[in-house]
Every structure is written in structure tokens, then in C-alpha cells.
Amino acid sequence: MAKRRRDHEAGYVLDLIDSLLDEPSAREHRFDWLRGDPGKSGRTVRLPVDAYWPDRALVVEVYERQHDEAVAHFDKPDRLTVSGVHRGEQRRLYDERRRTLVPAHGLTLLIVRTSQLTVDARGRLVRDVESDTATLRTLVEGALAAPGRVHENTPT
């Protein structure tokens, strides 16, 4: 049986942030101005963000391993996307599009890398709720204190 989104690492992180903010986020929210590259038909799709809190003008993207390193399962290097590149390169292009367009529309973008939280030797989340909540509290408070920007720690 396939795991539901909330069972994945990103869902866990977003659930903790929902709890911290005491309000639910709009998951997989799509803005009309955030679009992918045109397909063969010339049509573009609206790109999702992981979570959006409209009252706080806050967008959160959760970066799992595939955002910072090559992962064949996610990158599909043998298949090209509508952008004419493999999925890993398309992810990088779309991540950069979010970094540029989200603040350009007056929103705060917080990028949370799962590696910033409690992880095991393989880099997978341990789900230490107390420790992870404390880390996320610091990240969210920092982002909300300086709105309209991109907030991220680069990987080490």
C-alpha cells in the first residue's frame, strides 16, 4: 500500500509547522503566477509549493535529499522532461523559479532541509518531535521576522 503524503518526510515537517503556527497550511498550493515550462502543446501547468499560510504570507518548501544531491530514483536521468532536461535538472530550475518568484510577489519563502532536523546515519528523519519542533520554531520565527525574502541554510 502506498504511503500517504503526511507519512512522508515533508508531510511530517509541515504537520509540525502547522502545529507551531496553530493553523493549517494549504498543502500543494498553486499560484497562477508560478508556472512550469510549456509542454508540447504549449500549455503550462501551475507549479505547487509544499505549503502556504495566506494570513502570514508564508510559503514553505521542504527539501529532502533529492533537492541537494543526485538521486537516480527521483532524477530519472534516462528520461527528458518537457523542459528538455532530466528531472533532477528540472527540479533545480523550478526550485530557482520559486526562490525568485515567491518573494517577488511579496511572500516569504522558507526552505527547510530535512538535514537540518534530527536524522539518522543515512540522512533520514528520526522524527524526534521535541528537537525538530525546536529547530522549526527557530526557522519559522526567523522567516516571519524578515518577511518577503528567501530564508534557507545551504547544505553543509
From TrEMBL:
GO terms for molecular function: endonuclease activity. It comes from the Bacteria. Keywords: Endonuclease, Hydrolase, Nuclease. This is Very-short-patch-repair endonuclease.
